[in-house]
Amino acid sequence: MNPFRSYQSNSYTSFFASLGTSYSNPYISQCPASPLPSTLTSAIFSSSNSEDCSTTTSAHTQLPDPNASYLVLNTEKKPVYTCRSYLQYIKTLTLAQLHTLAREEIPMNLLPWAFIEDLNSEFKKMYCYQLCLVCWNATNKTQCPKLLQLEFACAILMRRDIFLEAGTGFGKTLASVFRNCCNDGITIIISPLKRLQLSQAESIFRKYGLCTIVVNEDTDDSNEFWRASNSRAGRFFEPIFQCLTCHQMNVYDFSKKGGPGCGDIFIVTPEQFFRNPQGHDSSFGKIVRKHPFRRQIRLTVVDEAQFIHTYGLPHYGMKAFRDAYGQLNDIKVLFGLAIPWAAMTATATYHILKTIEKRVLRPSYLHLRTTSNRPNIMYASHCVPGQIDQLENYKCFLSSPFDFKTQKRVLIFRDNMNPAVAIADYLDSLLPPEYRDRGIVQHYHSMMSKGYQSDTHREFTESSGNCKIMVATAGESTGIDHPDVEIVCLAGLPSDITDLNQRGGRAVRLISGHGLCVLFHEKWALDLDLAEYGMDSTNKITLDSIDFHSNIDRPRKSSLTPNSCPQDRASLACVLFTRRKFCARAFFAKCLRDDSPEALEYSTPFCCDAHENGFDLESFLPSKLYTPLSTMDTDTDTIKTQKTKRCSTATQDALTKRLESWRINMHNGDMYAAVRPIYYILPDSHIKLLVAQLPHSIRSGYNVTYLLEQTYEWGKLWADKIYRVIARFDQEEERSRSAEFIDESDCDEEKWTEVLERDRITRERTEEAALNAIGEEVETKKRGRKNRVHNFLVDLTNTK
C-alpha cells in the first residue's frame, strides 16, 4: 500500500505547504505557533494513542470538534490513505521512502546519512530517519540531529546507559528529549539549578512543543495542583512550574490509579526524589515510587553530571553541599534495569569520571564524547591591584565614552552576593545620567524575588534586552544559554577547574565572532607555594610534570572548615591557571581528559595569554584596566597572606562592651523588638569577628556587611551604624595614644599579661612614691613658711 497515492500534490513538500499556518502540534492542543500539523484525516478519529495509519473510504457521521482543525482529502476514483499527524505519516513509510524523503527535505551537510546507512539494523536506520525528519519539521527546518545525538538515541533504544561528554552549546538537551517526538513515555531530567530548569523548559517547549514540567522545592505539593490544570489549553505555571498540557488535564492521573497524565518531560532537582528536612515526601517523590508511573519512564538523564562529585560527596572535612546528588544510586536501584540512565557533562576530570561511573552508570555503558574545547573563546587572567572587591577594577567593562549601541554584553561572576550588588551599583553610577537606573547594569542572585530574576534574565539573554552588563552569582553559571555575551569575567578564583570552564563557556553561545573569558584574581594566588600542594616547585612546571590522574582540584590544606581562608581553599588547577606557565587551552584539555585533535584549535585572534605573542588584554576590553597611581596604598592583598595582627585584649574588651551597649540601645528602640531577637541585629560571634580586626581597617558599612557575610537588606539597616560605632572608637583610641597592637614574639599572651601586670604594679608604686616625696616636700615648705612667719612676729614684738 503506497500512501503517496492519496495525495493530490506531487510531493510531500507541496502537500504540507498547502496546510498554511492553521495547523498545530499533535502533542499540544490549541498552540497555533507549533510547527507540526495536528490532524491529516478525512474522518474524526478517537483519542486513543494508536500509532497505526488510519484510513477510511466512507463519509463520517460524527459531529466535528469545533476546537480542532481537519483536512478532508477525497477522490472519487481512488481510496484515500490518510494519517492523523506527520509522525504517523512517516511511520507508514518504508526505509527507501524515508531515505528519499530525508534527502529531499534536509540539506546533505546537516543530514548524517553516512552514519545512518552504516547501521547494522534496518530498524535503527528507519528510527534515525524518523528522528531526523520529525526534528527537522518540529524546529521549522532549522535543526537536524547530529551524529552523536543519533548514536545516543540508538543506545537508549537498546536500553544502554550512556555517558555523554560534549562542550557547552553542543546540544545535550536535544539528545535528551528529541526521541520523545517519536515515542511515547516519559523522560526525567535531573537538573541542578532553578534558573537552568526554567531555561531548559522554555527551550524544549519552544523548539519541540513537548509538554514540559518543572519540579523543584517551590512546587506546590497539593494533589489538586498535580491533578488538574483548570483548562484544556496549554498553560504556564510561573515562576516555579510549567505544565503545557495536551488533551489530558493533569500532570499525573490520580483517577486512573497512576495514569501517565500529560507530561512528556519532567525537569527535576535531585532533592525531589527524597524526603525534605521535615521528613515529608514531595508529590513527585511519591509518584515515582508508584509502579504505573515508573512503567512510563523511558530515560533518566543527569544533566551537569559533574555535580554528583562536586556537590554530592564530602570533600576535605566539609559536608556534602547537596546530599541528594550522592544518593542518586538509590534512585537507580529503585527504577531497575529496564530504565537506562544517561550522564551528561562538558567538564569531567578523572576523579569526577570515577564518581559518575560508580553512582549512576552500569559497567557496560556507552561512552560518547566530542571535544569540550570552545575554539571561539580566548582565555586570560589578570592580577587586580588591591583586593578583588575594589570596585574600580571593574570599570574596564564599560565603554568610554559610553555608547549603548556599541557597549559589549558582559557577564561578571562573583560568588559573594553583597560584592555582586556593590559592583553592579558602582558600574551603574558611572553611566551618563540619562542611562542610570534603567536596567543597563543589573545584578542577579538567589535572594531576589522570582519576578525580578525572570525579568533580569530575559533582559540580558534577549538580543533586544536593555541589560548590557550582568553581575551574577552561581545561578547563571551552568548550562544556561546567553546568546550574545562577548566577555565573561570570573571575579576571584572559582572552586575548581570545572567551574572555570563552565562559566567561561557562557560566552558567544549563539553569535559569530570571538569571545573572551578572563579570570580576575588577587596577588596572593601568584605567591602561594606550590610545594604545599605536593608539587616539586624547584623544577620548571610543565604539563608533563603534572599528574592529572590525581585530584587536580585539591586545595592547599587537606582539611577545611567553613571559616577557612581563600588561600587554603584555592584549587591547584585554578592557581596553575593564573601562573601562565603553559597554554590554557592545552591545560583544559589535560584536566578534562580531552585528547581529540580539535581540543587545541582556536578561531580567535589569540589562543590565550600564555604564549608571549603580543596578547594585550586591554585591546579586547571596552576600556582600560584600572591602574592606581600609587600601589603603596592599594597593595593590601599581602595582608591576607600573613598572620593577622590583633588588637590588644584590653582594646578588644572595650570595643566589645561598646558594641554590646549599642546593640541593647538599638534593640530597645526597635519597633519589631517583640518579634525580632537581639541577636538578629548583631550576634555575639559577629562582635568577636569585628573586634578582632585591625584599627581603621573597617572603612564603610559595606566592609561590615562583606566581613560578616550578611544580606544586602541587613546591611541597609545596620551596617552603617555599626561602622560609625567602630570608627568613633578607633578615633578615641588613637587620641589617647594607647597601645593598639601586640606584636608577634616568643612570649605567648599569658606571659605578656604577667609582664604588663608587673609593669602596672611598678608604675603605681613609682607614682605613689613620687606623690609621697612631693607631699613631704610640700609639708617641709609649709613648716618653713610657718616658722618664718612666727619668727617675724616675734622679732616685731621684741622691737616694740
Automatic annotation (TrEMBL):
GO terms for molecular function: 3'-5' DNA helicase activity; DNA binding; four-way junction helicase activity; hydrolase activity. It holds the Pfam family Helicase_C. It comes from the Eukaryota. Residues 390-549 form the Helicase C-terminal domain. One of its GO terms (biological process) is double-strand break repair via homologous recombination. It catalyses: Couples ATP hydrolysis with the unwinding of duplex DNA by translocating in the 3'-5' direction. This is DNA 3'-5' helicase. The lineage of its organism: Eukaryota, Fungi, Dikarya, Basidiomycota, Agaricomycotina.
